[in-house]
Design goal:
By secondary structure, the protein is mainly alpha-helical. Helix content is about 80%, strand content about 0%.
């Protein structure tokens, strides 16, 4: 496990990188189109390479048990998040409710959570984070999408299976169990691209934070959502793991990934389907900034 010094170092590094992204956006170097391109680059290339690279290790019985436990906890977390999303926001403004429901179900565990898990727990953290994200990706493109579309028939198995991160989990799993090994050049390329994940992710998140609308950031609904996203959800997972006697690494990875901010797709989908995009951006930005405070707090509780 990481000690206090390494946690402070990690959060400090994330803050500096995010500040750089903030300045790039304020200066106009990182444009709105550039943010979308950076998002696609991370999701379609950098993050999949990081995931595959994390699977290039010898499979043990302990790892199988940990992966299964993380997968089941992730399913439980998604079910609880869905239920909470329907109950917790009934008294909130109607135009905010859809954004808050989606942001509760779909976090930024992929772009932000994976580098944090890797920084805290090494390759094992990346590996377990990839497993944790499978149910989240499924919910994101089914129930999550339906929050904005409100239409039947939004389920797309092809979209889920062909998602780069899901495909990376499948490829990595095969490489882990099959008696084959990639050429050293391929492994080196995967690692070289994958280690860019943290830097690019934080630059993107800094760019998102730069677009905060301070009036919406101060809205009570934004802070209510932030408390649920960063405090209530991970607290519930932490308590359940304690009752179940979960393996410490499994518990820690699951809680940290649950304590992630609203996903960047919250703003993207709100804009695309006529939702409250400014409010979605405020929720994404505020939870992202405050997650850099929440992560050390959760680390202090867990480690």
């Amino acid at each position: 496990m990481a000690d206090l010094g390494s946690q402070i170092h990690l959060v400090g590094k994330l803050f500096i990188l995010m500040s750089a992204g903030f300045l790039l956006r304020r200066k106009g170097i990182l444009t709105e189109a550039g943010k979308q391109q950076l998002t696609d680059l991370i999701i379609d290339l950098v993050l999949p390479c990081s995931i595959v690279s994390s699977f290039l290790t010898e499979l043990t019985v302990k790892q199988i048990r940990q992966a299964l436990a993380v997968f089941l906890l992730s399913i439980g977390t998604q079910l609880f998040s869905c239920l909470l999303g329907y109950i917790a926001y009934r008294r909130c403004r109607e135009e905010h409710r859809t954004v808050m429901q989606y942001g509760t179900v779909c976090s930024n565990s992929g772009i932000l959570g994976t580098p944090i898990a890797e920084g805290l727990f090494g390759a094992e953290g990346t590996y377990l984070a990839a497993i944790f994200l499978i149910p989240l990706r499924v919910v994101m493109w089914t129930l999550g999408l339906s929050f904005f579309t409100r239409k039947a028939g939004t389920f797309s198995l092809k979209r889920i299976v062909t998602h780069p991160c899901i495909a990376a989990v499948g490829i990595g799993s095969l490489l882990m169990v099959l008696p084959v090994s990639l050429p050293s050049l391929a492994v080196d390329c995967l690692h070289t691209i994958g280690v860019c994940n943290t830097a690019l992710a934080m630059l993107l998140i800094g760019g998102i934070a730069a677009d905060m609308d301070l009036r919406l950031v101060l809205h009570p609904d934004t802070w209510y959502f932030t408390a649920i996203r960063l405090l209530l959800l991970p607290l519930a997972v932490f308590l359940i793991c304690g009752v179940l006697g979960t393996d410490p690494l499994v518990r820690n990875v699951t809680v940290i990934l649950t304590a992630m901010p609203a996903g960047s797709t919250t703003s993207i989908l709100a804009l695309k389907y006529g939702g409250d995009a400014p409010f979605a951006s405020a929720c994404t930005a505020l939870t992202t900034v405050l997650s850099l405070l929440a992560v050390p707090v959760w680390c202090a509780v867990l480690l």
